[in-house]
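$ run holo --ligand "magnesium ion" --emit tokens
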Amino acid sequence: MLEDNLVIGSKQSKEKQQQPRLTKEELVAAYRTMLLTRVLDQKAIALHNQGKIGSYTSSAGHEAIHVGSVYGLSPNDYIFPYYRDQGVLLARGVKPEQILNRYFGNASDEMKGRDLPNLYSFKERRLFSNAAPISSNLQVSVGFAIAAKMKRKDIVTIAYFGDGATSSGEFHVALNFAGVYKAPCIFVCENNQYAISVPVKRQTASKTISIKARAYGITGETIDGNDFFTVQTAVASARERASKGLGATLIECITYRYSPHSSADDWKKYRTSDEVEEWKKKDPIIRFKNQLLEMQILTEKSEKEIFDSVQEQVNSAAKSTEDIPPPSENSLITDVYAEVPWNLKEEEEGAAHYE
Ligand SMILES: Cc1ncc(C[n+]2csc(CCOP(=O)(O)OP(=O)(O)O)c2C)c(N)n1
Ligand SMILES: [Mg+2]
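-- output --
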């Protein structure tokens, strides 16, 4: 039965329930990071609306997938994110300032203002750089995982992508390679119901995205992507299987994007406000907050303190990055070769002449 590999919401398998639990401190930190992701996202949307940053792809609604998945990994693992994964970066320890420098494309931006604002690269955090073509990160993550396996390192890779990305050839090539080579990797599909304006039912005739794993001989499951615990345990189990040499897993996380696809999209043309409001009732942050209140890990008072400190952190990060000047003009030539060749030096001198 194809349904065998579907795990929705609370129908977690025994194997998953036996995953080691996170400490109280880790859970509070995870909650804080989910809030930080949302508040930073709201700040980025405001900065875009003020004309201060370029095009922007919001992560609102995806926070449980982002933070829950990173809490299922080991710090050694390598992450291959896509453009909507701000919470993944924050959960891996990237500072809001570093992300804002990226958006402003200023002199402190590690990519010096090159590339789209939502394409990131934080090597020291084991976060691989991503490119604009959707699903182009998948094969790279598989190759990296195979290399790590050949070197006998306990490293698992995790690659993130949307539902739309699963229609690309790269997705199928990556899953096939992962299956054949039993690559220690995890594929996380953030199924937010749309690829820009295309609903998921127009994307695939399959009952789910995760059943595609079966064709490639890897494990696949569909989970509730708005539940932190479900995501964390699914990723931790997949990591354990990968690390034991049992191969790759495709985890389809069901969620919803609240915002337009990007700041250049008008979602009212292809979905209704009622639909958006229905999904907001299943908000991953509110759900996690209520779970932590029930577990007596948070109180209303401590939650308010966390919320205030997150607001303060984001405002101060925006303040400290907003006025950083753009990268110097000569960074256009100094970054290309180890030693600047004569023809580029000539170009630089020529440009200086016109200043
Ligand atoms: C190979 C390729 N084709 C088309 C595009 C244009 N494009 C950018 S984002 C996007 C939709 C992706 O949707 P999905 O994979 O569901 O991710 P989401 O944006 O919903 O998170 C498309 C078609 C692209 N970047 N790369
Ligand atoms: Mg999508």
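-- notes --
Residues 302 and 325 are 38 Å apart (CA to CA).
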